[in-house]
């Protein structure tokens, strides 16, 4: 009885080693675990479900093969917030809203990508509110794919510069926002999220109750992170990434 969680793989055609590691992760666990949860930013950027380039089709095919044996759930991140119904159909993945409550082996958990909890990062929260507007997303998705790619490239130059100028502390979750979220969840819920690239297990006291938050490790050439939950609790693991020869 095991359920797996991954986040922040940031896969793209430019990350062949990570893509391969993701494929081997799926192959190794298909039919071996109860479910896989992807907590956002599987992709470096998702331009829309009509992106049928070989890389996108390949990822969908890997997920679909895995999903034939084991259910896969995905909660969108700040880079793949445009994943939609067609992707879900092609990949066999079930899309979830953020936050998502679930009970595993008798213990309640709350799943989130985590970007919505970084409330000290006001510039990002304004940006997020803008790009989450349905009408803007529909307008963007109606553009030809090539235009979308160019637009994203231009916006990323801006956001990349903005990020480089920010103090690191504001790019972490805000602890009051975390407590407020857990206040609304089932009592005793353990929060699991990604996004911050600061893998850790946090424990603290809130109104006399012990609370817990796990941050899933992002994937990079040094290795990929995952959490595994069993009836005995949460355990962090690492998945090897093999650097491919040029
Ligand atoms: O992902 P990561 O860790 O690098 O950084 C995030 C935040 N950045 C982002 C941006 C994405 O990485 C790239 C998004 C490209 C989007 C293109 C959208 C095209 C239109 C789609 C319309 C539906 O998420 C970063 C956080 C960091 O996490 C830590 O939490 O700090 O936030 C930023 O850097 C955002 C800046 O603070 C805001 C900059 C404003 C620039 C305005 C450009 C115009 C916006 C036009 C919107 C349509
Ligand atoms: Mn993210």
Write a brief caption for the model.
Helices cover 33% and strands 24% of the residues. With 246 residues, it is of the alpha/beta class. A 6-stranded mixed sheet has the order 4-3-2-1-10-11. The protein has a 5-stranded mixed sheet with strand order 5-6-7-9-8, with helices on one face.
Written description of the protein model:
With 246 residues, the protein is of the alpha/beta class. It has helices at residues 16-29, 54-67, 85-91, 122-131, 134-141, 145-164, 175-183, and strands spanning 3-6, 35-38, 72-75, 93-96, 100-104, 107-112, 190-193, 200-206, 209-215, 224-230, 233-239. The protein has one domain (3-239): Metallo-dependent phosphatases (Purple Acid Phosphatase, chain A, domain 2, 4-Layer Sandwich), CATH 3.60.21. The strands form 2 sheets. The chain has a 6-stranded mixed beta sheet. Strand 10 and strand 11 (233-239) form a beta hairpin. It is globular and about 55 Å long. The model has no long low-confidence stretch (mean pLDDT 97). The protein binds ligand LP5 and manganese (II) ion. Manganese (II) ion is lined by residues 8, 40-41, 77-79, 113, 115, 195.
Keywords:
11 strands, six-stranded mixed sheet, 246 residues, binds manganese (II) ion, five-stranded mixed sheet, alpha/beta
